[in-house]
Amino acid sequence: MFDNKSNTIFEASYLKLYKSGLLKTIADELYQSISECSICPRCCKINRFKSYSGFCHSGFKVIVSSYCLHFGEEPPLVADSGVGNIFLGNCNLRCLYCQNYQISQNYQIERNNEISFEKLADIMIELQEKNATSIGFVSPTHFLPHILKSLVIAVEKGLTLPLIYNSNGYDSVEILKKINGIFDIFLPDFKYGDNEIALEYSSAKNYYEIALDAITEMHNQVGSNLLYGNDGRLKRGLIIRHLVLPNNLAETYKILKGLKSRIGTNVCLSIMSQYYPAYKAHEKILISRPIRESEYNKVLNMLEELGFENGWLQDYESKHIYKPDFNDRITPFKIKE
């Protein structure tokens, strides 16, 4: 597979919004909305200024569990020097097999990693100074208002890199529309084509429809083509990730057919073979093993049948490589893949 790309002179979209004053307005509006939180599709309506009792167990401060230059993302994101990834704590899903469970599911522990908007802005600047290709927010959905508040400060400190919205796909279309023009790169997961499976394994109601609608909105904002700058780094675009699960629990064919019908086959996909039984996966027999090579090959055949040609495929043996350990918050990824 290959990427559909073109070169362009680039300025991060959020810089235009900052100059107009809209970035601060959007940030303030979304941050105030967590007093009756509906930032994600769960719409818990919890006052996060006073309580941690929402589904994500997150409050009015942002949780940064780890940050680093990361070399395990898709090639155009890594480019010559790595993505400046910021791993946010907690999550609005409960994936029983989460590979980042040490920071996504340990709510009481991660509360110790709450930081100020100013500190998050400083982290963005630090990663830029380390020559990161872009700033990637991993699991940003529940902390989106906090990110935007910090972004205003970071721009004032000189931030110019494009931002990556690296989410699990369980995002609110209404909220995505409000942040149109802030993120130049969208990197969502599309996890399930079966809502019953999504509910059982990730506690997510109506996941398929919600993710398809969210990804469609992301596509509306940035399109199918990947845009590169004169420095050869990815500046703008959509890459849809799909993790192949054992026993076809992801219902991959339905996902691909939905994408083809909604946004076409020119979009870039990242098909991942790295599944391994993490966290509570051993409690569920159907996800208690890695995927078989035959299962992965079936997915590759689906891509060919449906006409998807743009994107990236992981080597089948990737499950031996992509294993983060957040017991080490400085270098959770030991190998530059």
Architecture overview:
The chain is 34% helix and 15% strand. The protein contains twelve helices and eleven strands. The protein has helices at 13-20, 22-32, 75-78, 101-104, 107-110, 117-129, 144-156, 173-178, 195-202, 207-222, 252-263, 293-306, and strands at residues 5-7, 62-70, 83-88, 114-115, 135-138, 163-166, 185-186, 226-228, 234-243, 268-272, 311-313. Strands 1, 2, 3, 4, 5, 6, 7, 8, 9, 10 and 11 form an eleven-stranded mixed β-sheet that branches. Helix 6 (117-129) packs across helix 7. The radius of gyration is 19 Å and the shape is globular. 50% of the residues are buried.
Quick description:
The protein is an alpha/beta fold and 337 residues long.
3D shape: globular
Largest sheet: 11 strands, mixed
Following the backbone from N to C, one meets helices and strands in this order, namely EHHEHEHHEHEHEHEHHEEHEHE
The secondary-structure class comes to: alpha/beta
Low-confidence stretches: none
Count all strands and give the number.
Answer: 11
In DSSP terms (H or I, runs of 4 or more residues), the helix count works out at 12
